[in-house]
Amino acid sequence: MGMTISALARTAGVTVETVRYYQRRGLLGTPDRGEGIRRYEAEDVRRLGFIRSAQGAGFTLEQIGELLQLDAGQDRARARALAAERIAALDLKIAQLQAARGALERLARQCHASEEGPCPIIAAFEG
C-alpha cells in the first residue's frame, strides 16, 4: 500500500521539507501519484536512513549522491576513495580541534595563574 510523505518523514525521523529537498537534489525519487496521492515504500525509508547516516559521517550531499549511485554499481574502489577523502578531512579537522583545545587550555591556565591585568582568554580573542 505504501505511505504518505508525512508518514515517510516521520518514520525516517526527518521533516517533510527535508524529504522534498532530497527529492529536488535527486537523492530520493518522487513516486507517481497513484489515486491522487504519492505513496512511498520501505526502500525510500532505507534510502533516507542511508542519507542521514552518510551525513552523520560528514559526507556532503554531492558525495552522498555519488555513493548512492555506487550502491547500485558495486564500484568499491570509488567508495573506498570517497571514504579515504572523508577520513583525511576528518583527520585535518581533528588536528585543528586539538590545536584549538591546546591553545584554550594554555589560556585557561594563564587566566587561573594570575588575577592581575586583563584576562588572557578575553585578550586573546580581542586581538
**Number of alpha- plus pi-helical segments:** 6
Q: Give the SSE string.
A: HHEEHHHH
- The CATH architecture assignment of the largest domain turns out to be Orthogonal Bundle
How are strands sequenced across the largest beta sheet? 1-2
Protein name: MerR family transcriptional regulator
InterPro entries: DNA-bd_dom_put_sf, MerR-type_HTH_dom, MerR_fam
Keywords: DNA-binding, Repressor, Transcription, Transcription regulation
Pfam families: MerR_1
List keywords for this structure.
single chain, 127 residues, mainly alpha, Multidrug-efflux Transporter Regulator, Chain: A, Domain 2, 2 domains, 6 helices
Please characterize this protein's 3D structure:
With 127 residues, the chain is mostly helical. It has helices at 5-12, 16-24, 42-56, 61-73, 76-113, 120-126, and strands at 33-34, 37-38. Strand 1 and strand 2 (37-38) form a beta hairpin.
